[in-house]
Amino acid sequence: MKVSIIGSGYVGSVSAACFADLGHEVICIDIDEEKVKQINAGIAPIWEEGLDDLLAKYTQKSLIATSDYDYAVQNSDASFICVGTPSDEFGNIDLSIVKAASASLGRAIAKKDHYHVVVVKSTVVPETTEKVVLPIVEEYSGKKAGKDFGIAMNPEFLREGKAVYDFMNPDKIVVGAIDERSGFVVSELYRELDCEVTHTNPRTAEMIKYVNNSFLATKISFANEVGNICKQLGIDTYEVMDAVGTDFRIERQFLNSGAGFGGSCFPKDVKAIIGKAKDIGYEPQLLRSVVEVNDRQPLKMIELLQEKVTKLKGKRIAVLGLAFKNDTDDIRESRSIPVIAELQRLGADIAAYDPMAEEHMKKLFPEITYCKNSSEALLEADGCLIMTEWSEFRELDKEFNVMANRIVIDGRHMIKPERLSVEIDYSGICW
Ligand code: NAD
């Protein structure tokens, strides 16, 4: 089949490369000319394991990029909207980018003389596909949904860092369509994958995505709350969760306590569904607490540090890990951001290291010191905060020797002090 993908960020570029790998002809559309050029040169616009290889294999063969909506729509059967849906200043979903993409799509569909399917893959709150995207496409195309064009919602569940693998090995494919014809076109695109397709209506598909992310976020905040209580009682929360997680109704994953969740999805998606609930007159108490626990959690790292280093002004503090999680260069909502901001407020001298995310963090905090490796960050440091679960931090040992004071606050359960050859003053955030 022929498919166009609007937006070449994490979801768009991975979907494009994977659809090409499934044998489809793919056209990427992005308003960012730099990304268009990169993709046409076979270079991934973001870092994702395996993405460079797929783009190198299919670019200029079955995959091309353009900023021309008309060309892309004329030469494809379906267009996937994969643009960003950030939070607005109140935490509610900001649909302005989705609206702009829908209008451009509508204008291009106006010039097409046969059926086209519009697919929303961006994470959007329930009712958006039917009450926002559909009317905009109708308005700008002058055509009728369900007759001249189809419309469906197909949420994406990939994990950053493992996105290509997740796309090709999904545990669920959800297609929420306004009619059978649209749903059929979308599910055909996934025919080669070994996964049953859940067919439903658009608003249910939209809700499935939010419930999925909100539940995972709830598990993490639950684990962090339990972890905070365990720490005060001198109980190892990881031992607790290892036992609790053996219950098949609960499952061990996402019960690791730490400095909280970040990334482009969980924080904004939980806030967006809270906003939607408020719009319909429901007060989502539990989801509000999930966000509150998560907002407090990174600052616990500073509280623990201050128990050991009372005056942070002028003290060198190593921050290990800037990405919101390991195996990605994405820093969106990373828990290291509030930690660095608070350290700065307290006058600390910050030496940061991350294997991948330095360039992104430099845009937010150009004034802090960025180091080539952990040893350089730890040199003469008065304290160290571990913020991301990069596997290389698990191997740290003699590197702590170069610190002025070997105070280590671990936000990700990376260090086992009893196994080190060096003595350190260690605190885990919840253990
Ligand atoms: P992103 O910000 O990385 O990429 C969005 C892309 O859209 C950018 O390249 C931007 O230049 C482009 N764009 C903006 N306006 C455009 C327009 N009018 N026409 C064409 N292109 C335009 O976003 P992302 O992380 O890929 O997320 C996209 C959506 O997918 C969001 O709704 C997000 O919540 C959801 N999602 C993300 C993930 C993830 O892990 N990142 C996972 C599942 C779902």
Structure description:
The protein has 16 helices and 14 strands. An eight-stranded mixed sheet has the order 3-2-1-4-5-6-7-8, with helices on both faces. It has helices spanning 10-21, 33-40, 51-58, 69-74, 96-110, 128-141, 163-168, 180-189, 202-233, 237-244, 266-279, 285-308, 336-345, 358-364, 374-378, 391-394; strands spanning 2-6, 25-29, 63-66, 78-81, 116-120, 149-153, 173-177, 197-200, 316-320, 349-353, 369-370, 383-386, 407-410, 425-428. It has 431 residues and is of the alpha/beta class. The longest helix is centred in the middle third of the chain and has 32 residues, at 202-233. It is elongated and about 70 Å long. Helix 9 (202-233) packs parallel to helix 12, helix 11 runs antiparallel to helix 12 (285-308) and helix 12 (285-308) crosses helix 13 (336-345). The chain has three domains: 2-200, Rossmann fold, CATH 3.40.50.720; 210-296, Rossmann fold (3-Layer(aba) Sandwich); 299-428, NAD(P)-binding Rossmann-like Domain (Rossmann fold, 3-Layer(aba) Sandwich), CATH 3.40.50.720. Strand 12, helix 16 (391-394) and strand 13 (407-410) form a beta-alpha-beta unit. The structure holds nicotinamide-adenine-dinucleotide.
Defining traits:
alpha/beta, binds nicotinamide-adenine-dinucleotide, 431 residues, 8-stranded mixed beta sheet, Rossmann fold, 3 domains
Annotate the secondary structure layout.
Layout: E1 2-6, H1 10-21, E2 25-29, H2 33-40, H3 51-58, E3 63-66, H4 69-74, E4 78-81, H5 96-110, E5 116-120, H6 128-141, E6 149-153, H7 163-168, E7 173-177, H8 180-189, E8 197-200, H9 202-233, H10 237-244, H11 266-279, H12 285-308, E9 316-320, H13 336-345, E10 349-353, H14 358-364, E11 369-370, H15 374-378, E12 383-386, H16 391-394, E13 407-410, E14 425-428
Parallel strand pairs: 1-2, 1-4, 2-3, 4-5, 5-6, 7-8, 9-10, 9-12, 10-11, 12-13, 13-14
Antiparallel strand pairs: 6-7
